[in-house]
Write a structure and sequence with these properties.
With about 425 residues, the protein is mostly helical. The protein starts with a helix and ends in an 8-residue tail after the last helix. This is Amino acid permease.
Length: about 425
C-alpha cells in the first residue's frame, strides 16, 4: 500500500505542466512565497552577527541592515519586472541570456553556482556539528541525516520547497519569538547596551550586512509560482524582505542587550545558552538547523533550476532520471567538499562569492532596461521611481564597495582593528 501511495504522489508531482523553457509550473501561495525569501535569507549566519558587530555596536549594524535591505529589495524588484515582462518562465541565467546576451548569462550562472556551492558546503558542515552535539554521532553522519531530507525536497520541486519553507519558517519565527521574549523578561537585560560601541568600526559591519540578503536568486522561481497571480510577486518580495530585516535585527539586538558587547560569542547560541539556560542553547541551535535547511532549499533549488534553464539539452526539469542526475550535481559535491579538508577551495568560493555580488547588482539593471524595450508582455506591475538611474548607480556602488572591502581584507590592507 505504501509503495502505491508513494508512486501516486510522485506521478502527481511530475504531472505539473511544463513551460516552453522546460521548467515545471507549480502555483505558490502568498505565504509560501514570502517564506521562500525569509528561509533563503535567514541562514545560520544570523547567529554570528552579534559577534561580528561587537566593536561597532548594534546601531551601526541596524543602519547597514536597513541600507542593504532596501537596495537589495530594489534589485529584486528589477528582476520581478523583468520576469513579468517575459512570456517564458526563465531563471536568472535564462533572463540574462534573453536580455543581456551570452556573456551576461554565463556571468549570472557562475555567480549562482559559486554562491550556492559555497553556502551548501557551509550548511553541510554546520548541520553536521549541530546534530553531532545533539545526538552524539559523528559530524559526517549528522550531515548525512541533514542531507537526505533536504535533497528529497529539492527533488520533489517548487511545490514541495514552498510548503517546506512555509512550515519551517513559521517554526523559526516561533523559536526566535520565544528566545526574544525570554531575553526581554530576563533581569540581566539592559537596552542601554544597544547604544554602546564605536562608529569607527562601522565599515566591516557594512560588508556583513550586504551579504545577509541573498534571495535575489529565487525571484524568478517565485515569478513562476505566481504565473496565475503576477501582481502578487512584488508584494511577496517586499513582505519577505521586511520580515527578513526584522529577524536579522532582532537576534543581535536581543543577544547584545542581554550580555553586552564584551561578552559576545562567535555563535549567538552559546551566549543565549549561558545567559538563559540550557533550554535556550537547544532552542537556538534548533533554529540554526532550521535556518540552514530553509536556506539550503532556496539556494539549492535555484541552482538546480538554473542548470536546467542554462542547458536546454537536458530537457524538461520534471523528467525523474534527469532531475535526479542534476540533483546529484547540485547536492553531492558540497557534501564531499565539507569533509575533504580542502579549506583553500572553500575559502576561494567564499572570496569569489563577494565578487558575484557585483554581478548581481549590475545584471538586474541591464536586464530591466532591455526588457522594457524588448519584453513580450505588458507587466502586471512596474518599478516606477525606484528604477531611477541615480538609484541604480548607488546600488552598483554599494556592491563594488563590498567587493573592494573583500579584496583589501584578502590582501591585509585593512586597519588592524578591523
Amino acid at each position: 500500500m505504501s509503495e502505491t501511495r508513494v508512486q501516486s504522489c510522485q506521478d502527481q508531482v511530475w504531472a505539473e505542466p511544463v513551460d516552453s523553457s522546460g521548467l515545471a509550473v507549480h502555483r505558490l501561495s502568498f505565504l509560501e512565497a514570502v517564506a521562500m525569501i525569509v528561509g533563503t535569507n535567514i541562514g545560520a549566519g544570523v547567529l554570528s552577527m552579534a559577534y561580528a558587530s561587537r566593536k561597532a555596536g548594534f546601531m551601526p549594524l541596524l543602519l547597514w541592515l536597513a541600507v542593504a535591505g532596501v537596495f537589495t529589495t530594489i534589485s529584486m524588484l528589477y528582476v520581478s519586472e523583468t520576469a513579468l515582462r517575459t512570456r517564458t518562465h526563465n531563471q536568472l541565467s535564462g533572463l540574462a541570456q534573453r536580455y543581456v546576451g551570452s556573456f551576461g548569462a554565463w556571468a549570472i550562472f557562475l555567480s549562482v553556482a559559486v554562491n550556492s556551492i559555497g553556502a551548501l558546503i557551509a550548511y553541510m558542515s554546520g548541520s553536521g556539528k549541530i546534530l553531532s552535539a545533539f545526538l552524539g554521532i559523528s559530524p559526517a553522519l549528522g550531515s548525512l541525516l541533514f542531507f537526505l531530507p533536504a535533497a528529497l525536497v529539492l527533488y520533489l520541486g517548487l511545490g514541495a520547497i514552498g510548503k517546506g519553507e512555509k512550515f519551517i519558517s513559521i517554526g523559526m519565527v516561533s523559536m526566535i519569538v520565544l528566545l526574544v521574549v525570554a531575553t526581554l523578561v530576563n533581569e540581566n537585560t539592559d537596552v542601554a547596551r544597544l547604544l554602546e560601541g564605536d562608529w569607527i568600526y562601522m565599515v566591516p559591519v557594512f560588508n556583513i550586512a550586504v551579504f545577509c540578503f541573498s534571495a535575489q536568486y529565487i525571484v524568478p522561481e517565485m515569478a513562476r509560482g505566481f504565473s496565475h497571480a503576477p501582481s502578487q510577486l512584488p508584494k511577496a518580495v517586499i513582505t519577505g524582505m521586511l520580515v527578513t530585516f526584522c529577524l536579522l535585527a532582532i537576534v543581535p539586538m536581543s543577544v547584545i542587550s542581554l550580555t553586552g558587547l564584551e561578552n559576545q560569542t562567535e555563535v549567538a547560541t552559546l551566549a543565549w545558552g549561558q545567559a538563559l539556560g540550557q533550554w535556550a542553547f537547544y532552542t537556538a541551535n534548533t533554529f540554526a538547523l532550521c535556518a540552514m535547511l530553509t536556506s539550503y532549499w532556496g539556494l539549492g533549488g535555484s541552482f538546480l533550476t538554473n542548470i536546467f534553464d542554462k542547458f536546454h539539452k537536458l530537457g524538461p526539469e520534471n523528467q525523474p532520471k534527469t532531475r535526479l542526475l542534476v540533483l546529484g550535481i547540485v547536492c553531492v559535491p558540497p557534501f564531499l567538499l565539507a569533509y575533504s579538508g580542502m579549506v583553500g577551495f572553500v575559502n576561494a568560493l567564499y572570496f569569489a562569492g563577494a565578487f558575484s555580488g557585483v554581478i548581481l547588482s549590475i545584471m538586474p539593471i541591464l536586464m530591466l532596461r532591455s526588457a522594457r524595450r524588448r519584453g513580450d508582455l505588458q507587466p502586471a506591475w512596474q518599478c516606477g521611481w525606484i528604477a531611477h538611474p541615480l538609484i541604480q548607480v548607488f546600488i552598483v556602488m554599494i556592491y563594488l564597495a563590498s567587493a573592494a572591502y573583500a579584496l583589501c581584507s584578502a590582501l591585509n590592507l585593512l586597519p588592524s582593528g578591523w
